[in-house]
Input
Amino acid sequence: MHHDSASLGGDEARHLTRVLRVQPGQQYEISDNRSAWLAEIVEARGARVLFRILEPIDTLPPPVRITLCAALIKFDRFEWIVEKATELGVESILPVEAARTEKGLFAASGKRAERWRRIARESAQQSRRATIPEILPAVRLSSALSQDADYRYFLDEAAAPPFLGALPATPHSSDRVAVLLGPEGGWTDEERRLAIDAAWRAVSLGPQILRAETAAAAAAAVLTAVWLPAYNRT
Output
């Protein structure tokens, strides 16, 4: 991308030319995963689309930097986590193998990573995000617990304190937050002990037992709402 032009290739370009049948003169919003612009198509042929940049588009970053450490679940439902976490502004997604993760998901996750990245890219486009969340390689729980952040929470059942009560009274827009959510069947007692020993704080989203994908969306929405006032002050 240059300051006054940009090009698009590969499957996305072919989708524009062969499916959408775009023509020179049509305008689109484009992004380089950092900033966004309004651009006009100059040429569209096969696997190559050329744009002329017309003007920058103001895009606001998410109010807080969230790393979602999500235990691996059946892939069709994990895809839902990726899609909704992207819409809600999550910065990165870390797939995690827990004790109750279904056998075979961890080994197969590497082959799914590219599909998850494509889902994140499409969801970012739909929600008009300038940046696409990073899909990190899957790790085992012991490695996930070393994730660095200013605030680290693991979602547990109703016996844990309420999530809102554990959040800082004066959040800052530069804060980094890691949220760890478990698999179907929840955490084992040993995993709870490991998380607490690693200085993760147990929190609950309420008395109901939530599906993993529901918990992921709820946690991201809560964090965004709590940090939004701090973001608006900057």
Q: What stands out?
A: The mean pLDDT is 90. The helical segments are 10-19, 75-87, 105-126, 141-144, 163-166, 189-197, 212-233. The CA atoms of residues 71 and 96 lie 4 Å apart. Residues 5-57 form a domain with the Ribosomal Protein L25; Chain P fold (CATH 2.40.240.20).
